[in-house]
Each structure stands twice: as C-alpha cells, then as structure tokens.
C-alpha cells in the first residue's frame, strides 16, 4: 500500500501524519490488490479543516472529501466513507465474478460466438509509416506492432474506403 500525505496551508505535523497513515492502512483489508492513496490535509479560512483522499485501485479512482472543525474528526469521517465505498466496490466485483457466465467444455451454445484460432503475435517495433507500408505489401487486413517512439502496442487496419486507422493502447509499458 502506497500512502502519500500532503499538507496545504498547514504546518506538517508528524503526529497527524502518523494518525492518517494508521487510519488509511486499515483500508487494505477490503481489497486484494495494492492501493495507492493520496491524502491532502488543508485549512481553509482558518477554521475549516478539509481532508481530500484519492484512492486508486486497479485503474478505478475513488475520491472522498470532508470539511469539519476538527482535523482528526475529518480524517475519521473520510476513512469511514472510504471504507463504505471500498466495500461497495468489492461487493460489486464479487457479484460480477459470480454472475459472469462460465466457459463450459460441454460444447458450443446456440448463438454464442466461439474462439476458433488463438495465436500469439510478437509486436515488432516500428513506426506507423513503416507499418502502413508492410500492411499494403502483405495484403492483410490489419497489423499489430509496437510504436518505436512511445513503446505502446498499436493496431493498424485498412478501412473499406482504402484509408488506414491506427489504434494505440494507453497505459504503462512493461
């Protein structure tokens, strides 16, 4: 679990920081995947204590904020809200996994699409212009390659009107 704490318009206090880390570390028990948590503690107009927490979980972002007169009470309230949202997310994922149709080996169902052939393709590094030339030369309807500039996996395909479309993946490069 990665916890980042920032202070805005407030002096960084080790006791408060330790309290926030302790409270936020409780949230890991609700999910299997590691959490990235960023908390911002701030004071607005000398009397409003605000806590903003952004939690990233496998691409899902959960934002929670609370404004109170006491910073510790605001932290407790934010953690309670975040626990409720993480429980709801966990239950939603669990429900999806239970309701998802299972792949059966009994045979194909009527009207269901089946995977006929599965291939592993190594995405060769090249730029989009080179991929377009190879696609024209090969006569295939698409080509999969790795962009040399960004390192993203890309798919280029030929449209019916003769032009080409390029689909780039987004995300971290492994």
Summarize this entry quickly.
The protein is an alpha/beta fold and 174 residues long.
Characterization of the model:
By secondary structure, the chain is an alpha/beta fold. The protein folds into two domains: 2-99, Ribosome hibernation promotion factor-like (Double Stranded RNA Binding Domain, 2-Layer Sandwich), CATH 3.30.160; 124-168, SHC Adaptor Protein (2-Layer Sandwich), CATH 3.30.505. The protein is built from three helices and eight strands, in the order E-H-E-E-E-H-E-H-E-E-E. The strands form two sheets. Strands 1-2-3-4 form a four-stranded mixed sheet, covered by helices on one side. A four-stranded mixed sheet has the order 5-6-7-8. Helix 1 packs parallel to helix 2. The radius of gyration is 25 Å and the shape is elongated.
Question: Which helices and strands appear, and what pairs or packs with what?
Answer:
Blueprint: E1 2-8, H1 14-25, E2 36-44, E3 48-57, E4 60-68, H2 71-99, E5 124-126, H3 128-138, E6 142-147, E7 153-158, E8 164-168
Parallel strand pairs: 1-2, 5-6
Antiparallel strand pairs: 2-3, 3-4, 6-7, 7-8
The computed structural class is alpha/beta
- As a percent range, the share of strand residues is 25-35%
Strand order of the largest sheet: 1-2-3-4
Beta-strand segment tally: 8
What top-tier CATH class of the largest domain fits best? Alpha Beta
Domain module tally: 2
Shape: elongated
Order of helices and strands: EHEEEHEHEEE
What's the story with the biggest beta sheet? 4 strands, mixed
